[in-house]
Structure formats: C-alpha cells, structure tokens
Amino acid sequence: MKKSPIVFTLSVLALAPMVLLTMSIKENKAEQQAIGAVPVIKENETRASEWGKHYPRQYDTYMQTRKSDEIADVLKQDPALVVMWAGYAFSKDYNKPRGHYYALEDNINTLRTGAPVDGKTGPLPTACWTCKSPDVPRLIKRDGEMEFFTGKWAKYGDEIVNPIGCGDCHDSSTMKLTLTRDYLKRGLEAEGRLKTADVTHQDMRSLVCAQCHAEYYFKKTEWDDKGEKKTAMVVTFPWKNGLSAENMEAYYDDYNFSDWTHQMSKTPMLKAQHPDYETFVTGVHYRNGLSCADCHMPYVREGGVKYSNHKIGSPLDNIANTCLNCHKGTEKEFRETVEKKLARKNELAKMATDVLAQAHLEAAKAWELGATEEEMKLALQDIRHGQWRWDYAVAGHGAFFHAPEETLRVLAGAINKGQDARLKLRIVLAKYNAADYVGPDFSTKEKAQAIIGLPFEKLIEEKKTFLNTLRQEWIKQSEAKGLYDPATRKDMVLKTSYN
Description:
Blueprint: H1 3-36, H2 48-52, H3 56-63, H4 74-77, H5 80-84, H6 103-109, H7 135-143, H8 145-148, H9 182-191, H10 201-210, E1 217-225, E2 228-236, H11 245-255, E3 260-261, E4 268-269, H12 276-280, H13 284-287, H14 292-296, E5 299-302, E6 305-308, H15 331-368, H16 373-395, H17 399-402, H18 404-431, H19 445-451, H20 456-468, H21 470-480
Antiparallel strand pairs: 1-2, 3-4, 5-6
C-alpha cells in the first residue's frame, strides 16, 4: 500500500511530457491548418503586403531581399563591355542585379530606359516591363497581350508600380504555383521537351522562375485593333531548336534576327538576356531532380511550421541549408572550392571580352579604310557568334553554378570565334596597308565610352529630369488608382552607378 503514492507520482511524471507533447502537436496542427487554409485575396492583387497579411513568414523573408542593395557597376569592372555594346542601351548603364525588392526601381532608374517626357516617348518598348512586376499579368488580362506589348515603355509608367511579388508566381484563389506569362507556355510547346499539361509541382518550382530568368527576344508582330494596324513587340523564347547556345544561335540566324547593329563594326548583334533556366537544365542539379527553389528558396522550420524562404538570392548566402544538404565538407571548404572554380570562369570571360572588343575596333578600322561587305562578311559572323556565346555564358548570372562544364565550354567557343574574327580582319586590314593597326585604349569605362562617342553626362541630366518630373507624376497617379504600395518603397534609398 505504501508503494501506491510513489507509483502514482511516477505515473503522473511519465504522463506529463506526453500530455505536453499532445498539446504541442494539436497547437502545431492548428497552426498548420490555419496556414493551409486558403485566404480570400482578390483577383489580380499586385500588392505583396496584402498577401503578406495571410502569409507573414513568406512575406517577411521576401522583404529581406532589400538587404541586397549595393550597386555594382559592371561597365566599370570590365570597360570592354562598353565597346562590345556600342549602339545598344547596355553601353550606357549595366549593374549586377540586386534583390527582387529593387527589380522595378532599378528598371526605372537605369539609363537604359531613357528619359521619357510622356507616355509615348522613350527608347524602349513596353516589353521592358515584362519581368519586373505582377502588374504586368494584371495589365495583360485587362488590355490583352497584343495591346500590352504595343507602344513605348513609358505607356504604363503609372500602372506598373509594384516590384516582383506574390502575384507573379501564385494563383490568388488557390495559392498554387501558376504561370502568369503565356509566352513561357508557347516556348515550352515549341521546344517540346516538357508540355505544360504534364508539368509537376516540382517542375513548377523552376518554371515560375523561368518566366523571367530565361533568354528571350521581342518579336515584331503585326496585329489589327478594330481596323487600326498596330505593331507589338512580343516577348518570345527562341527555343524551337533547343536550349543550348548553338540551338538558339541557329534559331536567330535562320530567323535573320538581330537585337541591334553594332555602331562601330556594323555587325548584326545578339544580346542574351538572362538564360538561367536554359543553363540550369543542362546541369547536374537539374538531372538529379532539383528545382530552382530547392537552392534559391530552401525550406525553413519554425516549430511545427515548414515554409519556403522567400529571400531569394545566391545559395552561397545560406550554404548550410542549401549546398550542404547534398555536398560534403564544411561551409568554409565548400566556399573556397566555389571561389577557385569561379575564378577560372571569370578568367575565360575576361579573355573573351578583350578579344571581342578588339575585333569590333578592328572591324571599324577596316570599314573606315574601304573594306567591302563581301570582305567583312565572315569576320562579322564570327563576331556575332562569339559575342553571343560569351553573353549566353555570363548573362545568366548563376550559369556557372547551374552548369560549370557547359559554361566553360561555351566561353572557350566565344574566345575561339573572337580570335577567328581577328585573324580574318587582319587579312582585310593588310589588304588596305593597315596590318599593324592597334585599337584605341579602352582600359576604363570613361575611355571606352569616349571611343564610342557616348554622351554620358547628357544622359544623366536627362534621367534626373525624368526622375524629378514624370516619374513623380506616375507615383501620384498610381496612388490615386489604389495601386501603389508604400511598403514596396519603405526605407528605399536611390542608388545608381551614376548618381
């Protein structure tokens, strides 16, 4: 009988943790059910803060992309690019990408988008908004795709006001991942490897990224608007022949397409955008079943809650929860290995830019001396193909991590093409008694922009006028329409490479 109190006490002590565990499980289940419940978010809601009311964890991590706020002037780092892009907007201004929080702001501030004075002026088409805002699919639904892609960039300045956010990737009624840009669906159908009707959830964790992180061009498309003939510049993926650099190069050559004609060499040029998806699918990570989100949006656990981290950035910022899930070694060892490999890629990329910039200058000299189109034809083709390969390998900012061997292969091809062009040009220059021609010094951004005659200071003044006038009107108009989300500009400081 004396043992009963002791047994009872021990039983209580044993049961207490089980009771607490049961309560904890019930609380976690309740929280999971609350998270799993689909909230009411209005259709075409483009303000991320409205979604954040229902998904605070995802929203808070998304807002952390504003920490990636430093401006890195790529033209200053490698002035050869100014020469390579002579006559194209990228010779004016090109910075490394910042966090998604800044995507729209940087598009508005860059010298590339010019200094429009109204909705009909400015150098670029409306398509240049395409990847910067969930307001884009909203406007495509409202106005139609052809109308959206018709006109100048400034046409939608007071309508596209929210940076990349929830509505770019999620269906507001189901919260499922969804493709909000039909041009990706058309690209997949043309390529044929993956039909949109057959995609899995894991596929979607890459495809929502591929809507923007891919190579595209603006396809000139004639259309009829109630009897009025219009021209749309429709975002189009060149995937018909496949996703490799050579596949897309053949597509562009067959289509006789060029983004611009080089100001100095007169080469019909191609400009790669950011073929991250194309390089990713050629790499070992994709072949092993990984998606973009696995490395760029790793899962986070808080108690019994599991969610994806929306602070989208480099996996190297969170090695322990990304790379080391599969790779062996310590974080320090892994980082050192990556840095060594990346240095090799950067070495080849720099060799390619130096060779190609020199080729442009030598071609310009040959034209100046009276070279004929027939004499220049093959050299210009090598320049076009060489610069395309270089751009394909580096414009996808994660290309080297997605597919290191493929990236190095393509860069090697870029160098070979550039050298082939220079050999052909030396023969032409020798014919015109200029075999010993040495191009001008482009060792600094300022020298390179002077060579191509870029009125840099004038562009800056015009841009500042735009930012202080029309840009301010856009903000007021978007506020009046109820589109503007103050949270998307919280603590934002104007940062540019020219300010």
